[in-house]
Design brief:
The protein has 114 residues and is mostly helical. It has helices at 2-19, 26-30, 33-55, 58-64, 67-80, 89-110. 78% of the residues lie in helices and 0% in strands.
Length: 114
Amino acid sequence: MFIFTFLGATAQMLMKTGMTQHDPTLWNYATNIPLIIGYGLYGLGAVLFTIALRDGELSVLYPVISLTYVWVAILSVPILHENFNIQSWKGASKILGILTIVAGVGVLGRGQKK
């Protein structure tokens, strides 16, 4: 699931990068390398999630997907040059949200069957 969430975040970074570089025409969608790789990583992530479903509980695994938000928030700073100012209300609320997600997933993980 760790790899799945990281692949999902990486896919989103690539899709965002791809969509900011081209005009929205069908040809540009079809030849947009970052966009195509992003879709491929999404597909690979779906395969990994399906494999995880074989042995894991859906009620535990599905909320783990929220860790993708954590990866996106982290990766968006160096890749997309987004601002993550902890001293502003917006930055502080991002940190609080990330900590809440991580804590929630941690609590769910402790309750999972072995």
